[in-house]
Amino acid sequence: MRPGDPAGRFAPGRLILHRNVRRGRIGWVRPGRVVSDDERGLLIWVARNSPVASEVTEAGLGMRAIPFAEWITSSYRLAPGRWAGPGLLKFLPTGAAHSVWWFWDAEGRFTHWYVNLEEPGVRWDDGDLAGVDMVDQDLDVVVQPDRSWQWKDEEEFVERLGHPDDYWVADEAAVRSEGKRVIALAEAGEFPFDGTWCDFTPPAEWTIPVGLPTGWDRPPVR
User: Fold this and answer.
1) Would you state the pLDDT for residue 7?
2) Is residue 134 within 8 Å of 118, Cβ to Cβ?
3) HSE toward the beta carbon, residue 200, CA cutoff 13 A
4) Predicted local distance difference test score (pLDDT) of residue 1
């Protein structure tokens, strides 16, 4: 991690990479600015129009565009793109098997939380470039401002579990258990579903990078 920081934390304002890793391959990459990094976890801001990359087949199809049985027999490449939606916050709680994302509409009004179930992230720091690599476990939970909720992508999750030799999720029960634990927090209105950061706006001086920084495709640490 950064020299001189015994806690291994990232400085506010630093541009880092949040990367999804699938069986040793990069699935997607998103740069974000560090809002805060403390004992609760890491909070990053992904700005609208940020440069991103995601894995596609040689024909340019994403994983969700084709049956999983076809995806696992395909050849892949990382395709550059831009984050098309409004900016979002991502909170990676320390040691937790999920992250929580805050979404706003085009007018800056908070719309919902998105619970991304994922293996706890592994940090890396090369000095000029740093980030967190995690394994997205595909099943998600959408939580509305009134704390009502619903599972998301459950059909895709079940489909992929049918290919245990090729899927990166080994323990379905653990993923669902983590989702239920976070749902209980949401229903109770406990942090981070207590209104914290729902009015967040990024500092005006935070620029959007022209492209992904050199080294963005370094070998995953997972």
Assistant:
1) 55
2) yes
3) 23
4) 42
Q: Phi then psi for 180, rounded to 5 degrees? A: -65, -35
The H or E element spanning position 178 is helix 172-188
Q: Which segments of the chain have a pLDDT < 50?
A: 1-6
Q: Given the DSSP bridges, would you call strands 122-125 and 130-134 parallel, antiparallel or unpaired? A: antiparallel
Q: Whole-angstrom Cα distance, residue 64 to residue 72?
A: 12
CA 132, 30, 195: angle at the middle one, nearest 5?
80
Which value, to the nearest 10 degrees, does the dihedral of the CA atoms of residues 183, 32, 206, 115 take?
-10
Beta bridge partners of 122: 133
pTM over 0.85: yes
What angle (nearest 5°) sits at the alpha carbon of residue 169, between those of residues 58 and 116? 85
| Main-chain phi, psi angles of 160, to 5 degrees | -70, -30
Specify the 3-state DSSP secondary structure of 45. strand
Q: Classify each residue of 68-97 as buried b or exposed e, where b means 16 or more C-beta atoms within 10 Å of its C-beta.
A: beebeeeeeebeeeebeebbbbbbbbeebb
